[in-house]
Design brief:
With 278 residues, the chain is an alpha/beta fold. It has 12 helices and 7 strands. The N terminus is likely disordered.
Length: 278
């Protein structure tokens, strides 16, 4: 299904040849990284066969046209020296254009997980969407959107390191548990060097967090005195409870007895209760 039909937009299927210089890039394009080798290969293909799939554009309020989808094709066409490219004109608002650009990239799997998260955040901030609204428009669950946005808690240095070493989205989410920039960067280097999978990375992070728990502070004399007082009160309460129980048994006719003897290590308690026969 064409993007325009999916979003209920008026779409003129007639192909227009539009000058490349008249097409502005989509300011909400979620894709930030374009592989240079891939662009050169596409550019060479365009030189030989032309642009086989038209770009999608809309009329720009600033004049000319604004790209909705097809920035990679536009870049490669310019590299190939194309002065005009085939385009389909879409009657879309800025909001619709942004959503379509993101959805197209998601469907093509052209974005890495950080670019996905940045694109989703841009939609939410630019157009005041809730996470639920963004999820519905992108065909995702709310929890999936929330998990994507959590990735943006990583500093740029960490994001660059994760990309450099080709770690997965699940690696990235696991590393969020580590506090501090340097600690995260060191963890990334270790994970990459040891080629740890996600389960191994989770175990490694758990080990780091356990090691980071500070030892208990030595107990002050005042705290020790207070703790001793509470223990003394607890023992006295225990002894009083036993004495009360023995008294209750005696009043009911049971010849029970309770003796205390002080020893070096503490108290020896002896409780005597006759059996039923006795």
């Amino acid at each position: 299904m064409a993007m325009g039909k999916r979003y209920g937009l008026m779409e003129n299927r007639r192909v227009h040849m539009i000058k490349t210089e008249d097409i502005r890039r989509n300011p909400h394009q979620p894709r930030k990284v374009f592989d240079e080798d891939g662009l050169n290969e596409l550019s060479e293909s365009i030189r030989q066969f032309g642009v086989l799939q038209p770009l999608t554009v809309r009329k720009s309020p600033l004049g000319g046209f604004e790209l909705v989808a097809g920035e990679r094709r536009l870049r490669a066409s310019k590299l190939a020296g194309m002065k005009e490219v085939p385009c389909i004109l879409l009657d879309a608002t800025e909001k619709q254009s942004s959503i379509i650009a993101l959805v197209e990239n998601l469907q093509r799997c052209d974005l890495d997980f950080f670019e996905e998260a940045e694109g989703i955040q841009s939609l939410i901030r630019q157009f005041g969407l809730s996470q639920d609204e963004a999820a519905r428009r992108l065909g995702r669950s709310q929890s999936a959107i929330a998990n994507k946005l959590r990735l943006l808690r990583h500093p740029q240095e960490v994001t660059a390191a994760i990309r450099k070493h080709g770690l997965t989205e699940r690696h990235a989410r696991c590393l969020l548990r580590i506090e501090g920039l340097e600690a995260r960067l060191e963890a990334i280097e270790h994970v990459a060097l040891e080629k740890l999978n996600v389960a191994q990375t989770e175990a490694y992070v758990e080990q780091l967090l356990t090691r980071a728990i500070p030892p208990a502070a030595p107990e002050s004399d005042a705290k020790r005195s207070i703790r001793t007082l509470y223990v003394f009160k607890d023992v006295r309460l225990f002894l009083n409870t036993i004495s009360h129980a023995i008294d209750t048994m005696r009043r009911s006719g049971v010849d029970a007895s309770f003796d205390k003897e002080e020893e070096d290590g503490g108290l020896r308690l002896t409780i005597s209760i006759p059996n039923a026969k006795g």
